[in-house]
Amino acid sequence: MMRKSTVVREKSLRTQERILEAAERLFADKGFSGASMRDITSLAKVNLSVAYYYFKDKEALLFAVFDRYVKPLMDKQLEMLERARKEAGTSPITPRRLLEAMILPRTESVSEVVHHLFTMLLARRGVFEQRVFESIENATKEIRERFFTEFSKTFPALSSVEVRFRIESVHAMLAGWTAIAPFKKGAYPKDIKREDFFEMFMAMVLEMFSAPPTLSQKA
C-alpha cells in the first residue's frame, strides 16, 4: 500500500505537469504576453493560488516550460557524446557520430509546440526574450563546451571561431527548419520517411563541416 506522503507527492507532480502543459500550449498559441495566468489555470483546471504556489510568477512558469525539455535533451546529447567518445578511444570522434550526438536528440526530444514558442520569442527580441535566451545559454553551457572541444579535435584545420560558427549554424538551421516545416508539408511526397529527412540533413551538414577553413588558425 502506498504511503500517504507518496500519494501527495505524486498528486503534486501531476498538478504541476497539468499547469506546465497548459502553459506550453497557451504560450505557443497566444505568446508570453497574450497568455494570462488565469487562462493557464483555467485550461489546467486548477486554482490560481495553486499555480502561484508552484511557480512564483508567469516568467518562472515560462522558464519551467523550457526546462522540462532542455534537461532531457542535454542528458540524451551527453549520453550519445560519451558513448561516441568511448568508442573512439584516443582518436577524434568521427564527424558522423559527433553530429548524430548533437542533432538526433534535437529532432526527437523537443515538441513542435516548444519549437513554435521558441521561434515566437526569437522573433520579438525584447529585453525579456533576451533573458530567456541567456537562461537557456547558461543552462546548456557545459554541454555546448563539451561539443566544442570534440568538434575542435575532429576538425583540427578549423579555427576556434570557425568551429563555433559552424556549430551555431547547425542549431540555427534546425530551429529555422522547425519553424517553417508546418507550412511545407505539401512540398514533399507523403511517403518520404522521417529518417530520409534526417539523412538529407546529415549529408548537408557533413559537407558544411568538411568544407575548407575560411579563417586562419589564429582566429
Helical/strand content category? mainly alpha
What is the alpha-carbon Rg in Å? 20 Å
Shape: elongated
CATH topology of the largest domain: Tetracycline Repressor, domain 2
Rounded to the nearest angstrom, the distance between the terminal CA atoms is: 64 Å
Low-confidence stretches: none
Question: Describe it for me?
Answer:
By secondary structure, the chain is mainly alpha-helical. It has 2 domains: 1-55, Homeodomain-like (Arc Repressor Mutant, subunit A), CATH 1.10.10.60; 64-210, Orthogonal Bundle (Tetracycline Repressor, domain 2), CATH 1.10.357. 78% of the residues lie in helices and 0% in strands. The radius of gyration is 20 Å and the shape is elongated.
